[in-house]
Amino acid sequence: MSESDLHLLGDVRGRRVLEFGAGAAQGARYLATRGATVVATDLSLGMLRQARRIDAARARDAARAEEPGSPNGPLPLLQCDACALPFADGSFDVVFSAYGAVPFVADSAALLRECARVLAGEGLLVFSTTHPMRWAFPDVPDAAGLTATMSYFDRTPYTERVGAGEGPLTYAEHHRTLGDRVREITAAGLRLVDLVEPEWPAHNRQTWGGWSPLRGRLLPGTAIFVCRRSG
Asked: Model pTM?
């Protein structure tokens, strides 16, 4: 499901919006077409370069069709650590991320404090992650993925390294329980106003990695945390 289905960010026209962990900035690009003033950030320069290539391709397509480009032109993109955002306090009305940054940093509590810092007033923070329940189940799409094999409470990060597990770290994902997330949110000076667990759409018959209609009917795949800065 997408923001056009869920409407968790509300009316963004004229709002100052930050997407962190933006990847190729698909979310920011969508909100720009809805009238938001958007900045997209990511730690990966490669992903930001991909975002710029998408912007360039859209501009070429618009020129060939003799149509105006994006309402805001190329997106403002910035490479930075989401735990150290280079913005002044209260710079944004809305901060959001779709599967970005939160599960990939060891200190997600610090990340949420940083998000709260750059929000103005009772600004809105919305972020999605893989549902914590998934941690206990194998990441496979068939029936074998329906039997818990790990402890939900085991917070040992999943890591991948070059070579036979002894080389440099190339990937890390950090597990937090739902309770952990709620405590991090409140400790950051935010209040949780909604926790959305989207159901698997009946029309989606695709299988991708450990995601499938079989698992989707029985287990939540995504958790979306909707928060307000405590004014």
From this structure: 0.93
Tens-digit pLDDT profile for residues 141-186: 999 999 999 999 999 999 999 887 778 999 999 999 999 999 999 9
Q: What DSSP letter does each residue of 144-186 carry, written as one string?
A: GGGS--S-TT--PPEEEESTTTTS-EEEEE----HHHHHHHHH
CB atoms within 10 A of CB 75: 23
Numbers of helices and strands, H then E, in the chain: 6, 9
- What is the phi/psi pair of residue 38, to 5°? -115, 145
Rg of the chain on CA atoms, in Å: 19
CA 207, distance to chain mean position in Å, is: 21
Residue with tokens 């919006």: 17
What's the distance, Cα to Cα, between the start and end of the chain in Å?
30
Matching residue, tokens 């159901």: 199
Contact 125, 95 (CB under 8 A): yes
By C-alpha distance, which of 26, 39, 43, 30 is closest to 4?
Answer: 30
> Given the structure tokens 């930050």, which residue do they identify?
18
Cβ burial of 198 (10 Å; 0-12, 13-18, 19+) is middle
